[in-house]
Amino acid sequence: MANKILKKRGVLEFIVLMLLFPLYFISKMISKDKQLYIFGSSLGYHFADNSKYLFLYASENVKHIKSVFISKNKDVVTFIKSNGMNAEYLYSISGLRTVIRAKKTFISHSIEDIHPVLISGSEVIQLWHGTPLKMIGYDSDWISHNGKDKIRNVLRKISYSIIPYLYSSRFFDRIIISSDYICPSFKSAFNISETMIDVMGQSRNDSMSRDYLFTEKLFPEIKALENLRAKYEYVISWLPTHRKPVPIDILNLMNDYKFDIDNYNEKLRNLNAVLLLKPHFLELEIVEDIIKDKSNILIYRHVDPYPLLRFTDILITDYSSIFFDFLIMNRPIIFAPFDFNDYIKNNVGLYYDYDDVTPGPKCYDWIEVMKEIEMIISPAHKSENDLYSKERDRVNQLFNKFDNGFSRRIVDNYFEK
After folding, report:
1. Is the confidence at residue 192, as pLDDT, over 90?
2. CATH topology of domain 23-201+406-414
3. Contact 185, 351 (CB under 8 A)
4. In what order do the strands lie in the sheet with 86-89?
5. pLDDT surpasses 60 at 377
6. What band does 322 get if pLDDT is binned at 50, 70 and 90?
7. What is the DSSP string of 158-195?
8. What does the pLDDT average to over 373-389?
9. Helix (H, G, I), strand (E, B) or coil at 142
């Protein structure tokens, strides 16, 4: 959205994008290399999400297509190249040439994963970054509360019809989702027809398979996770939703809901369990000081959460769509919607009934969470006594049509033979 672009880039950069409009047409007219595909993610700064896993699969298994990961982060480019794969720094001659010549573009967030103007003429395939529980896109950003909103939305429609790449998250030719059940929400969120949607699953969920190999070279975090697995009997991961723009951070979710750090650490030590916190990267610093020197409460600092999920025995989350992916492994989930009423009040709403699609206990403070952890870990808690196992399977079948072969399926359907 134009107002968000202004906030993110500043007025100057927004003006630059407007001035680059002629380049949009030039790029569109440049002939494309049918055997050159590019990949980008996380607004260009991280090697992560569905784009990462599809790129890894394609680089290994599709030799007749040149797959190139494009990044605005030189460290990402260096890392990928050191692993023998193709990567280019966007703001380089070879990077610009690669982007302009690419026949197909795979993104996970928006065309800002690469560049709004330079990918013109390339077929853009939106892999997206999860199944939205909270309303997004047209269902959240285009609501008219008053006359001012109506005028703004009319102006946006006009500007996007003239310069389509300004609506960066909607600028794509096809979008890939995980099941037929969620098709209506994506149609509504992006205001698109069903013909633009393909149900193939998410590439990142390849990593949910026991057969997926996390090599230490490509996934340097694996060594640390293996060490945790050897040291602790249970790995518990807390992945809370980043509450933007609501003024609630991870410290609020701890301090306001009875998170006694020393007591928690002691209880986890007695259970031979470790609690890994994966805060939003903007919240890393604020939580570091309060858990330093804790033996059984640690911070997970890596961008990619999917290796962590593979090593996780119990997931704790609230509104993050990541639990839909975790369902594929049918492991216990504890839902901690501590601030449910405020969260709903400050957001536009959910696509699904929360209680119906969250197959696990609902806890409203950390004391309740610990009781659930102790119950799950208790010797009496066998798979046949897991009250939520069938419910997890039911919800998984709704939201995940497939349970393996995600990248292969996309390659078979989207890559030239």
Report:
1. yes
2. Rossmann fold (3.40.50)
3. yes
4. 86-89, 66-71, 33-39, 102-107, 123-126, 174-177, 197-199
5. yes
6. very high
7. HHHHHSGGGSTTT--SEEEES-STTHHHHHHHHT--GG
8. 78
9. coil
Using DSSP's 3-state secondary structure scheme, residue 12 falls into helix
Burial class from Cβ neighbours inside 10 Å (0-12, 13-18, 19+) for residue 269 reads middle
Better pLDDT: 147 or 225: 225
Q: What is the pLDDT of residue 280?
A: 74
CA atoms within 13 A of residue 207's CA, in its CB half-sphere = 26
Q: Where are the domains of the chain?
A: 23-201+406-414, 209-399
The rounded percent of the chain whose pLDDT value lies above 70 is 92
Is domain 209-399 in CATH 1.10.3720.10, yes or no? no
The answer to whether the bond into 332 is cis (omega within 30° of 0) is no
**Torsion from C-alpha of 10, 16, 19, 20, nearest 10 degrees:** -120
> What pTM does this model have?
0.91
User: Could you give the C-alpha distances from 297 to 292, 309, 370, in angstroms and in order?
Assistant: 9, 17, 13
